[in-house]
Amino acid sequence: MKLRVYLTFNEDTVREPVIWKMAREFDVVTNIRTAEVKDHMGLVGLEIEGNDDVVEAAIVWLKQQGVQVDPIEQNVIEG
Amino acid sequence: MSIVRALKCRECGQEYAIEPTHVCEFCFGPLEVVYDYEKLEGIFTRELIESRPQTMWRYKELLPIDGEPTVGAQNGFTPLVRARNLEKALGVSELYIKNDSVCYPTLSFKDRVVSVALSKAVEFGFKTVACASTGNLAGSVAANAAAAGLESYVFIPHDLEQGKVIGAGIFGTKIIGINGAYDDVNRLCSEVAGKYGWAFVNVNVRPFYAEGSKSYGYEIMEQLGWRAPKHVVVPMASGSLCTKIDKAIKEFIKLGLIEDNDTAVYGAQATGCSPISRSVKEGSDLIHPVKADTIAKSLAIGNPADGFYANRVIRESGGWSEDVSDAEIVAAMKLLAETEGIFTETAGGVTLGVTKKLIEQGRIPRDESIVVCITGNGLKTQEAIVDAIDKPSIIGPSIHEFDDLIEAESNKLAA
Lengths: 79, 415
Hints:
The complex is a heterodimer. Chain A is α+β, with helices and mostly antiparallel strands. Chain A has helices spanning about 20-25, 50-65; strands spanning about 1-10, 30-35, 40-50, 70, 75-79. Chain A has a four-stranded antiparallel beta sheet with strand order 2-3-1-4. Among the domains of chain B are: about 80-105 and about 215-385, Rossmann fold, CATH 3.40.50; about 125-210, Rossmann fold (3-Layer(aba) Sandwich). The mean pLDDT of chain B is about 95. Chain B is α/β, with parallel strands linked by helices. The longest helix of chain B has 16 residues, at about 400-415. In chain B, helix 4 (about 135-150) runs parallel beside helix 5 (about 160-170). The chains are: A alpha+beta, B alpha/beta. Chains A and B meet through strand 1, strand 2, strand 4 and strand 5 of A and strand 6 and helix 6 of B.
C-alpha cells in the first residue's frame, strides 16, 4: 500500500531524525512531498509505501515516538 | 453560464481538471476552485441577482456547479438582522446578526456547503454520498440526500449523544458508529472515500463543498445594501468559513458589485479548542494541534485543515482572533436570546462571546459596522444551557397562587 499522511512533530520530536529511523526499522519507502520545520514544530507531508502490515506497524511506531499522524485531509470529522 | 476554470493547488499553483479530487498530487496542498471572472463582466449585475428567487443560488455563477442545482434548490438567503437591542448591550452603533440558525432545511449553515457538494456529486454521477460528523453536517447530508433521492452514509463516533443520532437517522441515512480515537476515525473515513467510490463531502468533493460557504458572504453584502461590513466575526472549526467569506468579498469587489470597504475578518474559537486563535495571538503561522475540550462541539476540530489559510486571511485583512471559555459561551448564548430572540447553538455563543471580547479590547471599534456570523440553532445543543436558565415557577391551578407569584416577583424587582 501507499499511504499519504501528514506528520506533526512537537518541540520534543522536531529535532529527531524520525523518518530516517522509521525507514531503518521498517521495510518501507518514504517520500517527503512537503515540509515546514521550525524551532518548536514541524509538519511533513509524507508518502509511505510497503506491504500493508509493515506500513501499519510503521504508523504505530511513529505514534509511539510522539509524532502525530493524520490523513492528508486532516480533519475529516466535522461538527 | 459556468465560469469555473479548474481546481488549483493553494500551495504550488498546479491546476487540475474539474473532477472529484481534493489534494495536489505533487505537494499534498489542498485544491481550490478557480474561476474566469472576466466572463461575467457586464453580465453578472446587481439587477440580475435581485431578479432571482431568494435562495443561495441567486449567485450560482460564483458557485462551482454546471447549470441549475439539483440538490437544495431552496436553501440559503437567511435573515440579516439589525440587532438594535444587542447594540445597546454591547455599546456599539451598528451591529448585525447573519442568522443561519434558521437555514433551510436543517438549521445550520452546513446546508449551504452540502447542497453545493451534493449537486456536484450528482453532476459527477455519484449515487452515494457520505460524511463524518458529530452534528450539523450529519443532519444536513442526511436530509439533503434524502430529498435528492441519493443513498447516504454518515460516520459518527460510537458514543455520540442520542439527540444527534436521531437528527440524522430520521432521514433514513445509514449511520456507522466508529469505536476508536478521533484520529483513527479520520483515517478510516479517508480510506473509505478512496476505496468505495462515494462522494465523501469533506474528502473527495471538498473543494466544491467548501465553496458553498461563499453564499453566506454574498448574502451579507447584498442584504447590507450592496456593501461589505467593516468588521465580520466568524466562528472557526476547520477555518474554512473565514477564508470563504473573505473570498466572497474579494469576488464581489472584483466584479464591481461593491466598493472595497477594507473589511477586517475576525476568527472566533472556544478556549478549549483554539489552535487557530492561538497561532494568530502568538504571531505564528503554524497551527499546533490540540485535543479539544469544549462545549462548542461543532467547532471542536483540534487539527484544522484550513487553519493556516484562516490565520493568513485574518492577519492580512487587519482582523484578529480570540477565544472564550465555556462560561462565556453560555453567557453569550443567553445574551443573544434575551436581546434579539435568537437561540443559537454553542458555536454562536463562541462568535458573540468573542465579538464582545474584541469590542471590550478595543480591537473592534464601537462606531463601525459589525456582522456577527451565527451558523447554527440552539435547539441542537440544549444540554449546554440546561443549568443556565431559570426553572419554571410551579403553582397550583389557582388565581390566588398566581397573584401571589406575581406579587412576589414584583417585590423581588423592587428590592
